[in-house]
């Protein structure tokens, strides 16, 4: 997918002309079915319009075909999140875990992973991931003053301190 095509789609979407945007994307895809970027853009567009069922096959295809690093991160996050919203929790978990093996420092992936952990009833691990991410990224001094306690508690949420 080239820059001019992206600009065309972005303009159509900004103007509220979703139907024409999707027509263009599908037309371009017919002649370029092996374009991972095009599949990713179509998936992201479906996703942003609330049509996750149509988005996830294109995320899958985009990852399979290959993307640059930034788009690949976005595709893992988009696919994992989409699976989660469709109730496909195990698929979400494995997708986000795989994404985190490739991009272990990506905090957005971590946060979406914690949401999925909640859905698969791994509540303690979800809280640990989320609290750790918060402590690594916040600048809020009201939180940072409790950094040591929160880091300790994040790994021992059910411990009773007697």
TrEMBL record:
Record Pfam families: TPR_5
Protein name: Tetratricopeptide repeat protein
Keyword Nucleus: no
Spans of repeat TPR: 36-69
Species, as recorded: Shouchella hunanensis
Keyword vocabulary terms for this entry: TPR repeat
Signal peptide region: none
SUPFAM superfamilies, A to Z: TPR-like
Domain Tetratrico peptide repeat group residue range list: 42-156
InterPro entries: TPR-like_helical_dom_sf, TPR_5, TPR_rpt
Record flagged with keyword Transport: no
Domain of life: Bacteria
């Amino acid at each position: 997918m080239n820059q001019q095509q992206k600009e065309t789609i972005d303009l159509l979407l900004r103007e509220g002309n979703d139907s024409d945007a999707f027509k263009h994307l599908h037309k371009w895809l017919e002649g370029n079915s092996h374009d991972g970027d095009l599949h990713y853009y179509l998936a992201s567009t479906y996703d942003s319009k609330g049509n996750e069922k149509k988005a996830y096959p294109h995320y899958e295809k985009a990852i399979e075909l290959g993307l640059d690093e930034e788009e690949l991160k976005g595709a893992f996050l988009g696919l994992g999140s989409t699976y989660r919203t469709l109730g496909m929790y195990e698929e979400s978990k494995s997708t986000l875990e795989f994404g985190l093996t490739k991009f272990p420092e990506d905090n957005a992936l971590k946060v979406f992973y914690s949401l999925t952990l909640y859905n698969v009833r791994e509540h303690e691990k979800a809280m640990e991931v989320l609290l750790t991410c918060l402590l690594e990224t916040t600048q809020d001094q009201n939180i940072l003053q409790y950094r040591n306690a929160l880091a300790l508690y994040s790994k021992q949420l059910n411990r009773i301190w007697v």
